[in-house]
Amino acid sequence: MARATACLFLLVFSFTGLVFASDVSSEAGAVENETGSPSSAPSAGVMPRIPENYNCITCHEDLDDETLTPPVNGWKESVHREAGVKCADCHGGDPVDEDNAMSKQAGFIGKPAIIDIPMLCSKCHSNAKMMRSYNQRADQYDLYSGSVHGRKLLSGDKEAPTCVSCHGKHRILRVKDPNSRVFRKNIPETCGGCHSQRKIFEKRRKPFNQLALYKKSWHYEKFSNGDLLVPTCVDCHSNHGVISSKSRRTQTVCFNCHSSQTDYYKASPHWDAYQKQGEPVCLNCHNYHDIMKPVTEKFTGDKDSDCVGCHDESGNAYKTGVKIQEVMKSTISSFVSASAKLKYFKDNARGGFETSDITEKIGKAAEQIQELNALTHKLDIEDVKRESRKITQMSDSVSASVTYMWDEIKKRKIGLVTAWIVFIGFTYTLWMKSKYWKRPDKHAKPK
């Protein structure tokens, strides 16, 4: 009986093992088939093997030509190679038949004409099913076709940028690759590569100093110091769907980031004027590319982008600006003074006092200064005064606390000096008394 039970157990165990092995083998086969499928997205950074009989690659490598070989080397590093996109997918031809490799009958087109490039790229990039497997959008061609760039190209302007102007021709890298021309940190230089060319834009009577102006801006100062959330060209002008700088969307693009300023602006007389005549809007006062850090001097400055550019100095609007400037200067002066006093105290007082409360208070005042700057866009002097008083009160409170602590330190120092004087005087008195009693004549017997 025991032997029969053991045999039955071995039989069941062997059958289970065969079924399990079959399942594992099937799963492995499924994974292999899925990975090898042209429609599946490859893992990032995994380069597929280059077919041995793919003549385009082997031939261009063997040529060792300074013009014809670099494209292959660039492609080897590209995201297209990762995705399995090879030469014939863009250039046509038969890569496995050496005789028909560059045959027109095999669809060889060689170097694509500039005007054909967007449509060529769209063969894949407008295929929603294909792009879904890479988690990518499929509307780039539609956006480009309606853009300033796309319309210029379709009108016959061969200097208009196409896909390869920004993404490269063969060494096309992922957007998130730091070496990519469209990596966020590289965007200004990529766009500026064209938009700083005098020969292209001068004949079109267009400016070509946008990059130079942007590099003077408050935006670029923060961007160049590592803050990649700061706007670049594509944040204001879009990437594929670049629209005219005169469009309403571009004129009001600042609203997307500067929400507080937008809310106050829309409650101001400027917004009413913009609704009727199309200005003033953010760009009229803060410039387009060379956007500087806002300062109170704009209220009384002499540039076209300052208040005087639109308002007569004798008018009520200009006078309101002067009043706002006076309040702002007074408030900022009070805040800066309090901040400096607190910093100096913390650096030189050498402890002994709890300063967390006033540190928090000055931090809150700093936040309200930012809000006050935004509030000036409403152009309501009474609102500005009301918020200013709150900040001034906090700043004055911090200054008073710092003054009190310095006074306390002085008192402590005076007390310490007094104590030392008393101690030294008392010690000296004891020493003199002791010396007096040790004199020999004090112990001599009277005669």
Automatic annotation (TrEMBL):
Residue ranges occupied by any Cytochrome c-552/4 domain in the UniProt entry: 253-316
UniProt KW Kinase keyword: no
Span of domain Tetrahaem cytochrome: 79-196
Main subcellular location: other
Residues that span the membrane, as ranges: 414-432
Gene Ontology CC annotation, any one: cell envelope
Single GO MF descriptor: oxidoreductase activity
Nucleus is among the record's keywords: no
Keywords of the record: Electron transport, Heme, Iron, Membrane, Metal-binding, Signal, Transmembrane, Transmembrane helix, Transport
Alphabetized Pfam families for the sequence: Cytochrom_c3_2 (PF14537), Cytochrome_C554 (PF13435)
Subcellular location: Cell envelope
InterPro entries linked: Cyt_c-552/4, Multihaem_cyt_sf, Multiheme_Cytochr_ET, Tetrahaem_cytochrome
PANTHER family assigned: DISSIMILATORY SULFITE REDUCTASE SIRA, SURFACE LOCALIZED DECAHEME CYTOCHROME C LIPOPROTEIN
Official protein name in the record: Uncharacterized protein
